Amino acid sequence: MADPAATNTGVLARCARCGLAFAGQPEDCARVTELVVLHTRYCLRDDRSNEVWAPYEAVYASLRRHVVVVDADREARKALRSLLERAGHRVDEAEDARGAVELALTRQPDVVLVDVDLLGGVAARIRAARGRQAPLLVALTRGGHAEDRRRARAAGFDTSLLEPPDTAEIERLVAAAPQMTRLRA
């Protein structure tokens, strides 16, 4: 049984007969309600009030990624970290290129987001050390300047995002990145 606090989910419903809690994200409420009805039909009425079941936990887990945020500006790192953690991702931070490379090699993240001013050799060093197991490398650019995007591509980054990134755009990009843990297995 999943722990709702550990999975970014909350209790959406309970079985009236046994007390089993059904957890999920708010958008899953209708589907969870259908499962409660089915469960209630076959419920044995044993006390299960201390149990929580998150039937869609595998779906949530498949969307989680490990992200490294790299920016010299502490407040920018903190804001991006907060955004990503609210979406259920695990986040590490670095304030410079050296820290970014160290985290990418020791923690093996799925995505590395790097401020455009800190590109200096980050992608090349990560790709040299991790080869085909390199994470998705994303440069965070200011103002959408073509020159920043060109610098990011030339430095070996996979793509770039305008900083501060749009919430939906960054979530789409991060969730679509391959999970390195699956590739290593």
Descriptive account of the structure:
This protein is α/β, with parallel strands linked by helices and 185 residues long. The chain has eight helices and eight strands. It is elongated. It starts with 9 loop residues before the first strand and ends with a helix.
Features:
three-stranded mixed sheet; 21% strand; 8 helices; single chain; 8 strands; 185 residues; five-stranded parallel sheet; alpha/beta
Could you give a quick summary of the protein structure above?
This protein is α/β, with parallel strands linked by helices and about 180 residues long. It is built from eight helices and eight strands; from the N terminus they run ββαβαβαβαβαβαβαα.
N-to-C order of helices and strands: EEHEHEHEHEHEHEHH
Secondary-structure content class: alpha/beta
Contiguous low-pLDDT stretches (5 residues minimum) are 1-7
Q: Kindly state the mean pLDDT as a whole number?
A: 85
CATH structural class of the largest domain: Alpha Beta
Number of H/I helices? 8
Give the fraction of residues assigned to helices.
40-55%
- Strand residues, percent: 15-25%
How many discrete structural domains?
A: 2
First and last CA, distance = 24 Å
The shape, in one word, is elongated
Strand order of the largest sheet: 5-4-6-7-8
